[in-house]
Amino acid sequence: MKHAAFVQHGDGEKLKLKVEEWIEENRESILEIIDIEYEQNGGDIYTATITFFRLRSISSFFFLENMWYN
User: Fold this and answer.
1) 67 confidence band (pLDDT: 50, 70, 90)
2) Which end of the chain is more exposed for a tag (fewer CB within 10 A), N or C?
């Protein structure tokens, strides 16, 4: 499980756009998005945390598999 965190000062709507852009840019490496939490901290500071499972690359899988058996 991985997390990606974002902070935005000012407009909270811009934060939602950042999150959507990040998801789109990283779509190929995301297996599943578990949760997206938005919070307002203080007057105009907004945070977002994405919790997700990441896909393993095939080359990493084979590398780990070969290390395990050798």
Assistant:
1) very low
2) C
Number of structural domains (the chain) is: 1
Q: Which domain holds residue 58?
A: 2-69
From CA 19, how far away is CA 2, in angstroms rounded?
15
CA-CA distance, 41 to 52, in Å (whole number)? 23
Token pair, residue 44, equals 């105009």
Burial of 4 (0-12, 13-18, 19+ CB in 10 A): middle
What's the pLDDT score for residue 12?
84
Q: Which two tokens stand for residue 38?
A: 């938005």
